[in-house]
C-alpha cells in the first residue's frame, strides 16, 4: 500500500509529504492545496495505465501549465510503498518521477528502488542521465545477474513504469513492476454526483468517477454475491434517514437485462410502505449509497479518495459516516482518504481519529504544506477549548500551525 507521497514543486507545493493510512481525513481552507493532492493521485494512476504525459496532465485541473509551481520548470513526485504482511513491513519501494513541462513535456528522471533492508536500497531501474529528448531515455535496469544493463527506450510520452515489461525479462523487476502498477491502478478518486444517479444505468464492472452507474455495478455481480452486497448496503442505510428503510436492492431491466435500477423500501411513521427508486431518493441518500457501493466493491488493496465525503448528509449522521468508512476500510483492506469542510464531521471525531487528520495550509511564503494534526505541540491545549470542527471554524487551528512555523524559522 502507499505509505506516503512527497510533492516537490507540484502545483502550490514546494516540498511537502502526505502520509496515508487505513483512513485519513484531509482538511483545510479553500485554496489550501487539497485538490492538488487529489490531482497527484490521479496522475499516478494515469502513469500506471500507460497514458501519454500530454493527455494525463491535460486531464488535470489547470492542465500541464498549472501542474508545476510557478517559477519552476519541472515537478517531482516521490511515492513510498510498503508491502505489508500482518502489519509488519516486508519490503519497501520508492518510486520517483520528475517531469518537465516548461517548453516540452518530457520525463527528466524516473526510478524504482527496492529496500529489503533498512536504509539499503537497490535500484530496479533508473534513468542514467537527465535527457531533454521527449522520446529517448537511457536506462540502467537490473539484469538477472544483478548487474545493470544500459539500454535505450522510446517512451512515446509514457512513463517508463508502464513499459518495462516490453524491454526486460528480470523476474524480480517484472514482478515488482506488476505490484507497483496494480497499486497505482487501484487509486480511485470518487466524486459522486446525485443528479447523475437518477436514471437506469448500464450493467458494468467499472465504477464511474461520478457514481452515475452504481445500479449497474451492483447488478454486475453474480446472484449470491449481489444478495450479500445488498444486505450490507441495507444494514448501513437503514441507520441513515428519518424514515424506516427496510431494504435496498437492484433489479435488471430491459429486453436483454443490460440496464439496472436501485430500489428502496421505505416505511413512513403512519405505517404506509412505499417502493421508490433513485429518482425519488434524496441527494444525501444517493451519495451515501454511492460511497457504500465504492467501499464494498473496489478491489482489496485500493486507495479510495472521496471528495467532500459528507456533502448533502445531515450533520447528525456524521458519526455514522465515520464509523462506516473506518469499519469497511479495515474489513476490506482499503485505504480511504476523504476531504471535508464540515465542522460537524470533524467534531464527531473521537481522540482515536486525531492521528489520521492532515491539515492543508499555506506557509508564510505562500506555499501549500501538509501537517499531521497530532504533530502540533499545541494540540492538547487546543482540544481543551473544543473539537477539531470548532478549531477549524474559528481559525484557531491555522493560527496554531502558523505560530509553530514562525517559531521553527
TrEMBL record:
GO terms assigned for molecular function: ATP binding; ATP hydrolysis activity
What InterPro entries would the database entry show? ATPase_AAA_core, P-loop_NTPase, RecF-like
Q: Which Gene3D superfamilies match?
A: P-loop containing nucleotide triphosphate hydrolases
The UniProt record lists the ATPase AAA-type core domain at 24-347
PANTHER family with a match to the protein in the record: ATPASE AAA-TYPE CORE DOMAIN-CONTAINING PROTEIN, ATPASE-LIKE PROTEIN
Give the protein's recorded name.
Answer: ATPase AAA-type core domain-containing protein
Give the organism, scientific name.
Herpetosiphon geysericola
| Lineage, opening ranks | Bacteria, Bacillati, Chloroflexota, Chloroflexia, Herpetosiphonales
